Amino acid sequence: MKKLNGSELAKVAAMVCALALAACGTDPENGEHHEPEKVELVLSGQVVASYVASTGAWSDELEVDVGEETAHFTVRFLDEDDEVIQGEDLSLRVDVEDESIAEWEQDKPGEFGGHLHGKSEGETDVTFNLMHGDHADFTTKPVHAHVHED
Length: 150
Known about the structure:
1 helix; six-stranded antiparallel sheet; mainly beta; five-stranded mixed sheet
């Protein structure tokens, strides 16, 4: 078996990465890669915060009181045509930086929604991940979540 030198190894690694990226998030019907342009957090039919991928900015922050939970958020990942990105192999993962301040609860694992629970007064960051199988195809920059004492 031939050993690969550093330059050959780098070429092989680059080809493997390119193949993995090409396969990930591809629509099998037309071969397009669906990259989210926007993420919307919706409560009772109203967009309460949105994220624009091109600027990496959130329009607002999340708020909840200690010992309370928000109503059910729907989380929508939108493409360049403002169409919801969907697929059987796609799911949502939400990461809360400090779960002693707040935590995210989904009614069903992977569902595109959930509740934010206020655990203790403070501020933490929350990121939303569009999962494709066991890895994130897209991750927002963090949005601040403020937990207030009554």
